Amino acid sequence: MSETNTPAPEAAEAHRYTAAMAADIEARWQDVWDAQGTYEAPNPTGDLAGDPAVVARPKKFIMDMFPYPSGAGLHVGHPLGYIATDVYARHQRMTGHNVLHTLGFDAFGLPAEQYAVQTGTHPRVSTEANIENMKLQLRRLGLGHDKRRSFATIDPDYYKWTQWIFLQIYNSWYDEDAKRARPIAELVAAFEDGSREVPGGRAWAGLSAAERADVLNGFRLAYASDAPVNWCPGLGTVLANEEVTADGRSERGNFPVFKSKLSQWNMRITAYADRLLDDLDALDWPEAIKLQQRNWIGRSEGARVDFALGDEAITVFTTRPDTLFGATYMVLAPEHPLVEKFIPAAWPEGTHAVWTGGHATPAEAVTAYRKQAASKSDVERQAEAKDKTGVFTGEYAVNPVSGDKVPVFIADYVLMGYGTGAIMAVPAHDSRDFEFARAFELPMRCVVQPSDGRGTDPAEWDDAFASYDAKLVNSTGEGISLDGLGVAEAKAAITEWLAERGIGEGTVNFRLRDWLFSRQRYWGEPFPIVYDEDGVAHSLPESMLPLELPEVEDYSPRTFEPDDADSQPETPLSRKADWVNVELDLGDGVKSYRRETNTMPNWAGSCWYELRYLDPNNSSALVDPEIEQYWMGPREGAPHGGVDLYVGGAEHAVLHLLYARFWSKVLFDLGHVSSVEPFHKLFNQGMIQAYAYTDERGVYVPAAEVEERDGAYFYEGKQVKREHGKMGKSLKNAVTPDEICEEYGADTLRLYEMAMGPLDVSRPWDTRAVVGQYRLLQRLWRNIVDEETGAVTVVDGEPGEDTLRALHKAIDGAGADLAGLRFNTAIAKITELNNALTKAGRPLERSVAERLVLLVAPLAPHIAEELWHRLGHSDSVVHQDFPVADPAYVVDESVTCVVQVKGKVKARLEVPPTITDAELEQLAVTDAGVVAALGGAEIRKVIVRAPKLVNIVI
What is the 3-state secondary structure (H, E, C) of 67-84? Predict the structure, then answer.
């Protein structure tokens, strides 16, 4: 070749697929996609309505769980789910769907507020800066989001509707007869006309405004209450049960959490316990997540039983009412409200010394014990291995079946949060009660016949005897005998007996507690609630929404020493007097009011964000009904409606998912949406992990600066220890997507993250392995573009049969894998095809090249778009049809059939894949190798599994 025809090195480099070329291609096409609105999904109506032909296609609503915009930015673990949903969304567009895929930002919450306290930067300033940085990082990955629909929960136009939904819940009650929420105005009307009795028996007209408010507070789905809450002095706020870890510490910050009685807002999620449980069956969710929700809701059947105590009654819930004759004492949670009502001035005569805890009076004993219990978490209080502690209250209740007087204790192993906060203790048949009874020298009575030969005297036992498959004994009283009955029969008999006497009834109990909805923080949605001079709560009218979060000088709630259980919260908003105290006209003239100074939890904004994606600019309604019905309404296979695919971490199994389901059901009951459930299909992606390294002090060192030598690891010349962990800033092992994009390009990063393994499995990051996907893209480029000239090398003409078989098998397999979220195996099939085409060593036919590009397009959209246009197309690859496999080329020409005799392989036959059982059996039994193996023996049976197996039994 002459010198004049030889490209200069710089020119040759210009046509090779390098990181620099990838960066140019990616930035260029991202600009084009934005300018042309390539990813905009049309609505059937409204300001985002578009092409009717696109709206007429099958719809697909694909969502990622809300990201929180951290100041640290993204590491490569964060976009795993975002890339996966993007690949799936692109494939769905190419298979004829109108795809809604977008992303917003969950921007209220503790991290931004803590950063503001530390730096003096307003949380809105830092949060909005973080959002912009995250948008740039995500854009660089080529994610196909409809950007018209994006928002942040801190936008007043968004949280106006969060406040509006709160008011819908506040102004509703749950009708147990209708099994749905109804407007509180309907309940008031029933009280007014007498069709429903007012609790307490008084006439509605005779109640004061404050008394009416108290009555309605007992019905509202959002209500204020003085109740034991999880108080975290170290954070200066109360927490929901779901925000407290198993060892009784705050999920954020790992501070101790204590029980304290405070007035707080709650959501009556317990009213929906049955529906939250039952509707799980129709959802396409991982069984592990469903199980976690079922366990958290914790449905159990049993009976409510009243034990008389003077003029009062202690109500217990028990799943074993059949053992009522064995109840020899009672235990109340230390926080039980009845405790303060009946404590006598002195110990009753003959009180056992061990019952008093060494205190002179019952009041002293109870006060001291309550303080001790408040310093423990629920988990600590219920730990099986701990010694049982408690104290006698000085009072006795009456066992309703035996008439025996039973002492009433308080003990920390009983929680206010479960059942009624009181138990009947049956020490002979419950291990915790047995331990307590032994510790406090309390009597035991055997009422379930032991089946293990231990006898019926519990004094001789080492532990309680618990059985659901035994006969009742020692259980005869006035008007009833359970002796000789099985457990199920005894339960039914005693429950009926209790109901006839009005001292009990069969009932269902749930572990689920109402959702604590107040936070003593600044950076959250203000409650649209004000209080009048009598302390009565009033909701703001919709015309006053949004109630915007005011500017304050001090963002910090008052925090305390982490162990200061006696501290009380002080909110940042309470210090802004000119905002708290206002003059308003709520319909009856201008009056003075005081605003609520708590804010909503960060979960509020994420309880309904799927609806805002549908109709993001609607200022007059939560969502247009026609639009909501189109994207989320009930349909075949999804009877409760909801998002078609929701991808996110399994760590949200209870908190976010349970709360969002509750809000969705209330909105459905009130007629605002057609979907009963927010998310029909849920997929939990795994986690990208990374090696972390610690020095001799146990301090993490920068993973990027660690060297490996002879199987050992060194940092600055000193050996360090390697461990496997979550990728993150604290472990100094984070790798940013920006780094990988700089070195290889975004398409390579996308391919690597999808190729690492099954999407739902956690996998280790290895930067050195990224180059494998980079080389795949380079080979793809070389198969279509001449690296010396930049010319497209495809040719016209028909491909050979071998090429067609390889192509159509890849189309068939990769298409099914992409539809099934099996991206790693789809990439493997595409890689196999591309390698085969490379090895062929000849130019690709245009029909092959184009289908190869379309195969790659969902996974590596930038290079696919570039190649598609270089192949002469003017329209975007994003909206092309995904290739369809020809069945004739997918089926193998022949299949290897294994023939076994007496379980050992004696022949391998190449047979057509369509061969029948009879034809295959005839081939097998006449094969020379098989005949020799049979040696004239009689064939007893031939098992045929055409076309791959024949098993001959002799």
Answer: CCCCCCCCCCCCCHHHHH
Strand partners, 249: 256
Cβ 429 vs Cβ 326: under 8 Å: yes
Same domain, 203 and 348: no
Burial group, residue 842, by CB count within 10 angstroms (0-12, 13-18, 19+): exposed
Query: Which residues have a Cβ under 8 Å from the Cβ of 598 and sit 6 or more positions away?
Result: 264, 265, 518, 519, 520, 527, 571, 573
Considering the domain boundaries, does residue 562 fall inside one?
yes
Nearest to 562 by CA among 113, 334, 243, 250: 250
Residue 540 phi, psi (nearest 5): -75, 145
Q: Could you read off the pLDDT of 265-322 as tens digits, one per residue?
A: 999 999 999 999 999 999 999 999 999 999 999 999 999 999 999 889 999 999 999 9
In a shared domain, residues 286 and 386: no
Give the C-alpha separation, 302 to 488, whole Å: 11
| Ordered DSSP codes for 16-49 | S--HHHHHHHHHHHHHHHHHHTTTPPPBSSSTTB
With tokens 């999407």, the residue in question is 759
Do 839 and 935 lie in one domain? The reply is no
Task: Tell me the per-residue pLDDT of 170-222, one tens digit each, with 9 for 90 and over.
Answer: 999 999 999 999 999 999 999 999 999 999 899 999 999 999 999 999 999 99
Separation in Å, CA 172 to CA 12, 216, 407, 436, 525? 71, 10, 42, 44, 20
Largest CA distance in the chain: 118
616-638 pLDDT, tens digit each: 999 999 999 999 999 999 999 99
Examine residue 537 and state whether it is found in any structural domain, yes or no.
yes
What residues pair up with 261 in beta bridges, in sequence order? 228
Q: Are 906 and 933 in contact (CB under 8 A)?
A: yes
C-alpha distance from residue 35 to each of 28, 38, 103, 147, 283 (Å): 11, 8, 18, 11, 38
At residue 241, the pLDDT reads 79
Q: Could you tell me if 305 and 290 lie in one domain?
A: no
Which pLDDT score, from 0 to 100, does residue 5 have? Answer: 45
Give the pairing of strands 949-953 and 895-901. Answer: parallel
In terms of Cα–Cα distance, which of 42, 152, 70 is closest to 104? 152
Residues paired with 643 in a beta bridge: 679
Higher-confidence residue of 474 and 371: namely: 474
CATH label of the domain that carries residue 383 = 3.90.740.10
Give CA–CA dist 679/65, Å, rounded: 11
Residue 7 — pLDDT band, cuts 50, 70, 90?
very low
Residue 28, number of CB atoms within 10 A of its CB: 13
Whether residues 794 and 870 share a domain: the answer is yes
Backbone φ/ψ region at 403: left (φ over 0), alpha (ψ -120 to 50), beta: left
Q: Is residue 654 part of a domain?
A: no
Range of 841's domain?
1-36+735-891
The alpha carbons of the chain give a radius of gyration, in whole angstroms, of 35
d(CA 605, CA 549): 14
Query: What Å distances lie between residue 17 and 13, 702, 827, 863, CA to CA?
Result: 8, 31, 19, 9
Report the DSSP pairing between strands 299-309 and 504-510. Answer: antiparallel
Q: State yes or no: pLDDT of 3 exceeds 70.
A: no
Buried b (16+ CB within 10 A) or exposed e, 593-611: bbbbbbbbbbbbbbbbbbb
DSSP state, 262?
Answer: E
The residue out of 891, 914, 932 marking a domain boundary is 891
CATH number, position 887 = 1.10.730.10
Question: How many alpha carbons lie under 13 Å from residue 744 in its C-beta half-sphere?
Answer: 25
Cα-Cα-Cα-Cα dihedral of 921, 922, 927, 931, to 10°? Answer: 80
pLDDT surpasses 90 at 373: no
pLDDT of residue 492: 96
Q: Is 930:907 a contact under the CB 8 Å cutoff?
A: yes
What is the spatial distance between Cα 932 and Cα 316, in angstroms, rounded to a whole number? 79
